[in-house]
Amino acid sequence: MSVKAKKHLGQHFLTDENIAKKIADTLSLVGYNSILEIGPGMGVLTKYLLDKKDKTTYVIEIDPESVEFLKSKFLDLAPRIIEEDFLKYDFKEVFSNKPFAVIGNFPYNISTQIVFKVLELRDQIPEFSGMFQKEVAQRICQKEGSKVYGILSVLTQAFYNAEYLFTVSPSVFSPPPKVNSGVLRLTRKKKYTLSCDEKLFFKVVKTAFQQRRKTLRNSLKTFNLSDNLREDVIFGKRPEQLSVKEFINLSTMIQEDVKKQ
User: Fold this and answer.
1) Which helix (H) or strand (E) holds 60?
2) What is the side-by-side order of every strand in the sheet holding 181-188?
3) Which of 188, 219, 236 is the C-terminal boundary of a domain?
4) CATH of the domain at 178
């Protein structure tokens, strides 16, 4: 029995056992007792996660055919198979308020949305690792000064340390994707609460990069900032020139400016 890859679900099943084990071993296994795998497919990565006996592995899979395959292949795992959409599921039902790690060979068509969901759940997710389209993985880990540094880079790195680990060729998948893949690891920072208003921070970052060729003086006009603040040297920069820390400082400055008005 095997599972047919479904294009609308972005399925590309990993076939290389060595790569699967290497991805499973990217987790440090520190700070949590549970692991959640997204989109396990036919379980090539799952098998190596289940080998980590001091951790409890759960999987979330939206494809009914994959769910049936997993139930038949991993009998002990069956009660921990969540047949739901990761992007919509309330994980309090399974984990309550306890921490868990997230891992997977992520469907490329929703990989960015998966990262944003992890950021929403950052209080519970101390570690996250897995496979993305190579360009997306590099973007998440990129530092300021790069053309691919953007919203995803800043928002992720505000809360997590991001590491690009290794590149994976299309030949180890069935069917092979048309692009290279990249594996990354996110480890939550010890201090992951921002010193500024977090909703404002998200808004500032997103607004700045929506017009990334403009200086912040022009791209942040909608914030109705005072003339004095807009004269600050930081507003003469473009968003890709600012580090995560500078974005946090910028958000604090805007926060204080709004209070004075």
Assistant:
1) strand 56-60
2) 81-82, 56-60, 34-38, 100-105, 127-133, 181-188, 160-168
3) 188
4) 3.40.50.150
What residues make up the domain containing 239? 198-260
Specify the residue for token string 């469907």: 107
CA–CA gap between residue 157 and residue 201 (Å, rounded): 13
What is the distance between the alpha carbons of residues 106 and 90, in angstroms, rounded to a whole number?
Answer: 19
- Is residue 229 within a helix (H) or strand (E), and if so which, with residue range? helix 227-230
Residue 8 binned pLDDT confidence (cut-offs 50, 70, 90): low
Indicate whether 164 and 213 sit together in one domain.
Answer: no
State the pairing for strand pair 34-38/56-60. parallel
> What's the one-letter identity of residue 61?
E
In a domain, 193, yes or no: no
Whether residue 240 has pLDDT greater than 80? yes
Q: Are 254 and 229 in contact (CB under 8 A)?
A: yes
**Among 188, 216, 236, which residue terminates a domain?**
188
Q: What is the per-residue pLDDT for 135?
A: 95
Q: Which residues pair with 127 in a beta bridge?
A: 187
pTM to 2 decimal places = 0.92
Q: Which two tokens stand for residue 61?
A: 């899979």
